[in-house]
TrEMBL record:
Keyword annotations of the record: Ribonucleoprotein, Ribosomal protein, RNA-binding, rRNA-binding
Cross-referenced InterPro entries: Ribosomal_uS15, Ribosomal_uS15_bac-type, uS15_NS1_RNA-bd_sf
Family named by the database record: Belongs to the universal ribosomal protein uS15 family.
Region (Disordered): 1-23
PROSITE patterns linked: RIBOSOMAL_S15 (PS00362)
Record SMART domains: Ribosomal_S15
Subunit structure: Part of the 30S ribosomal subunit. Forms a bridge to the 50S subunit in the 70S ribosome, contacting the 23S rRNA.
Gene expressing this chain: rpsO
Protein name: Small ribosomal subunit protein uS15
GO MF annotation, one: structural constituent of ribosome
Superkingdom as given in the UniProt entry: Bacteria
Biological process annotations from GO: translation
């Protein structure tokens, strides 16, 4: 379940430091959050899709690691990201 080019562009414009920034942790977290939301909807329909469930858990784990990294570098940015993306602590 890849994101469309338009959706990726919107996320990069909103969270990126510049227009073509896809590598900063903020953008990576925002992109993962978008993919996680789509995959969560998929899992609600297809409850027995265990391969997708494993991928979803892997994305959540990767996002958690990136959030921990941002929290160590800039705690205020971490709190701002949580609020803007609607992620629970």
């Amino acid at each position: 379940m890849a994101l469309t080019t338009e959706k990726t562009g919107e996320v990069v414009n909103e969270f990126g430091r510049k227009s073509d920034d896809t590598g900063s942790p903020e953008v990576q977290i925002a992109l993962l959050t978008s993919r996680i939301q789509e995959m969560t909807q998929h899992m609600q329909v297809h409850k027995k899709d265990f391969s997708s469930r494993r991928g979803l858990l892997r994305m959540v784990s990767r996002r958690r690691s990136l959030l921990d990294y941002v929290k160590g570098k800039n705690p205020q940015l971490y709190l701002d990201l949580l609020q803007r993306l609607g992620i629970r602590k």
